[in-house]
Amino acid sequence: MDMAAFKASTAQPKPPAKLDLALRALWWDAKGNWKEAHEHVQQDEGNPRCDWVHAYLHRKEGDASNARYWYRQAEKPAASGPLEQEWNDIAQTLIDGAPVDTGKKS
Length: 106
Description:
This protein is mostly helical.
């Protein structure tokens, strides 16, 4: 699935079956259902993909301290730009299947 198909899928009543929990959470967020999105990422805490989306969701909610915690868990710098841009950046990275770059040296 590419970004255009992912965004188009939000016109449907349910997310595509093959999405992982992190992408399902972003899908629900795009539908305006923060609660459902949050419930999805909570199912896989410790997974950097879900933790990154979790951070974004708390940032969107306005809970900066909780967002900072989840950015640390995801080993990502705290975002400060527009929420729409962060959503797009996260979605594109997850769709591409790229591992979440933590910036840590091996």
